[in-house]
Write a structure and sequence with these properties.
This protein has about 130 residues and is an alpha+beta fold. The chain has one domain: Cytidine Deaminase, domain 2, CATH 3.40.140. Helix content is about 30%, strand content about 25%. The chain contains four helices and five strands, in the order ββαβαββαα. α2 links the parallel β3 and β4. The radius of gyration is 16 Å and the shape is globular. The termini are far apart. The mean pLDDT is about 95. The structure holds zinc ion. The site of zinc ion has 7 residues, from α1 and α2.
Length: about 130
């Protein structure tokens, strides 16, 4: 909710806040940032994730995403892909800012089944198995 208050969303009027929780207990937040050139806009989830990664925060356990959206917003495809790559074990908590204590909870895998990183890790497992 605090991150959402810092969103830069003058075009959509749809502020979104996200906060990642690392195993260390560190919380990294982000909010959506929009550009006059709409395609450069970045989602709250990715802002938080990029901040965490570039600050050396790993082992992300959970991400909360909040916006004024019935039952809470769901991450877009790009955010789902990045969460699968960098926070595959995270719980994803989605809440409507009007009722933030009533959140939905998903695993990243539920949100992005059969993902590209699945293919990569399967290939890695196959290589490890063939190497004995
Ligand atoms: Zn997104």
């Amino acid at each position: 909710m605090q991150a959402r208050a810092r969103a830069v969303a003058p075009y959509s009027g749809f502020p979104v806040g996200a906060a990642l929780l690392a195993r260390s207990g560190q919380i990294v937040s982000g909010a959506n940032v929009e550009s006059v050139s709409y395609g450069l806009t970045c989602c709250a989830e990715r802002v938080a994730l990029f901040k965490a990664l570039t600050d050396g925060v790993r082992d992300i356990q959970a991400i909360a995403v909040v916006a004024r959206y019935r039952h809470g917003p769901t991450p877009c495809g790009a955010c789902r892909q990045l969460l699968m790559e960098f926070a595959p074990e995270a719980l994803v908590l989605l809440a409507d800012s009007a009722r933030p204590k009533h959140y939905r909870q998903y695993s990243v895998k539920e949100l992005l089944p059969e993902s590209f990183s699945d293919w990569r890790s399967k290939a890695k497992r196959r290589r490890a198995a063939s190497e004995g």
